């Protein structure tokens, strides 16, 4: 995996396309890779090895050097390699000599200044160019439809292979195994190039100069300056125009305005609190706030010594129970888990959750209050 990162990267394009000035501001901040990001890097390394092996290419098994390797990662990367090989078989049905590129450097600087990225897998064949991106994350469901990261990758791949193959359309797939999610979006070459010229290029030009308008929204989630961004503050403080009286006094449209911003408002407040805390820990003295020691839990100094002491007193210090489904899946791996326990797992109906109409989950049919039981 390359260490160099583009200022206008494909992975952050969702943010800088919506808020162009954020690109240069974020570029000034140091990268602080999270444990989730490092876990994803390990998974991608394993994907590369397994896919090369499946294609008959020599590659060294990286498992012993992976910090976060477990059975779940082994299963997910197996599924990824299998999926890619299935797509290669499909490509061979319409083209005699398709080519697979793994961890391919993709340059889309024709539209984005110094724009480049790395494509997990590219399958090049006549008529259709296939771009596949492996996502190991589980918290955020990623969709391929009009996904700017995937479209930037597609442009980079098109720059290399268009002309060598008669490409008419590009198929982009997000493979997210831990969410059991495969999302595919197909766009014509003409439509992709039109988006690149009319939307991507002019916005990237603004972003490269730190120009354009600040805009707050869901794209703020991974912005490095989100905690101190004034535009985001203004966006969230618009809710202050409501007096927050009892719900009976609010009109329906007012409630919907609040619902539309509620999650982002909570996220913003939490970001502010975390930023202020970290500043204080680093030595900053706030005027009206101070650091105190938070609540902590008691713990045994030595588990073995405690057990011996309790047993000598005639008591049993141990408890035994079946581990949870998530822990069991990690221990067995998804394939073995399904093989052994598929008939012993049930999933109860989830509690009602209110989401925007744009959410792809189907609406619940049973909406009577008696249809649900609250857990006490």
TrEMBL record:
UniProt keyword Hydrolase, yes or no: yes
One Gene Ontology MF term: hydrolase activity
A Pfam match: DUF2800
Lineage: superkingdom: Bacteria
Assigned keywords, A-Z: Hydrolase
Keyword Hydrolase belongs to the record: yes
UniProt name for this protein: Protein of uncharacterized function (DUF2800)
Organism: Dorea longicatena
């Amino acid at each position: 995996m390359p260490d160099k990162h583009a200022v206008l990267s494909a992975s952050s394009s969702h943010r800088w396309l919506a808020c162009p000035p954020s690109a240069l501001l974020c570029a000034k901040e140091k990268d602080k890779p999270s444990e989730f990001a490092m876990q994803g890097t390990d998974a991608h390394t394993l994907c590369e090895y397994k896919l090369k092996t499946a294609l008959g290419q020599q590659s060294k098994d990286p498992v012993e050097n992976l910090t976060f390797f477990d059975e779940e990662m082994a299963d997910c990367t197996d599924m990824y390699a299998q999926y890619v090989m299935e797509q290669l078989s499909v490509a061979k049905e319409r083209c005699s000599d398709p080519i697979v590129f793994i961890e391919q450097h993709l340059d889309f600087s024709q539209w984005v200044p110094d724009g480049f990225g790395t494509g997990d897998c590219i399958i090049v064949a006549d008529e259709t160019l296939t771009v596949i991106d492996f996502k190991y994350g589980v918290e955020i469901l990623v969709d391929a439809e009009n996904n700017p990261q995937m479209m930037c990758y597609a442009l980079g791949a098109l720059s290399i292979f268009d002309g060598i193959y008669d490409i008419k359309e590009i198929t982009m797939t997000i493979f997210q195994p831990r969410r059991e999610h495969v999302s595919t979006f197909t766009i014509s070459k003409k439509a992709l190039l039109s988006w690149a010229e009319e939307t991507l290029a002019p916005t990237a030009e603004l972003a490269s100069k730190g120009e354009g308008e600040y805009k707050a929204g869901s794209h703020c989630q991974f912005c490095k300056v989100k905690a101190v961004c004034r535009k985001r503050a203004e966006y969230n403080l618009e809710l202050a125009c409501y007096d927050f009286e009892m719900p009976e006094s609010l009109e329906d449209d007012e409630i919907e305005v609040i619902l539309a911003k509620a999650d982002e408002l909570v996220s913003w407040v939490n970001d502010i609190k975390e930023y202020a805390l970290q500043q204080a820990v680093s030595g900053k003295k706030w005027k009206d706030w101070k650091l105190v020691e938070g609540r902590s839990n008691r713990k045994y100094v030595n588990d073995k010594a405690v057990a011996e002491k309790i047993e000598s007193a005639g008591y049993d210090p141990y408890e035994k129970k079946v581990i949870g489904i998530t822990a069991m899946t990690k221990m067995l791996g998804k394939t073995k888990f399904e093989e052994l326990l598929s008939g012993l797992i049930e999933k109860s109906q989830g509690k009602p959750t209110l989401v925007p109409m744009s959410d792809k989950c189907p609406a619940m049919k049973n909406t009577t209050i008696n249809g649900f039981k609250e857990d006490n």
